[in-house]
């Protein structure tokens, strides 16, 4: 239960920040720069948020420094992000299940999915470095 609670907290920290940044990106950057550029500009900020959140989780919520616990937290949190992306895509953009994941720009979409993998393994990386 502790692992699930920690994964939900990690998800909320990163997804909440991404949701706020995403609103700003869609309202201000996309009209000025286009979707690809706006998403790519947001990516480094999100990576910093991922590292800071994973570090906080490792310091305050990871009771044992085992890699399996840290990886479980990261991959459960990543699953929650995918579910949330799916739900938001279907709810706010009227997309189907397939469209929610396949209608991404080839460049920024690949960067997004790579950042998801980094999001999943970051708690383990941070725990290992400590």
Model description:
Helix content is 88%, strand content 0%. By secondary structure, it is mainly alpha-helical. Helix 2 (35-60) runs parallel beside helix 5 (106-129). The longest helix has 32 residues, at 2-33.
Protein topology:
Blueprint: H1 2-33, H2 35-60, H3 67-93, H4 97-102, H5 106-129
Summary tags:
130 residues; mainly alpha
pLDDT below 50 for ≥5 consecutive residues: which ranges?
Answer: none
What spatial form do the alpha-carbon principal axes imply? globular
N-to-C order of helices and strands: HHHHH
Relative helix content: over 70%
CA radius of gyration is 15 Å
Question: Nutshell version of this structure?
Answer:
The protein is mainly α and 130 residues long.
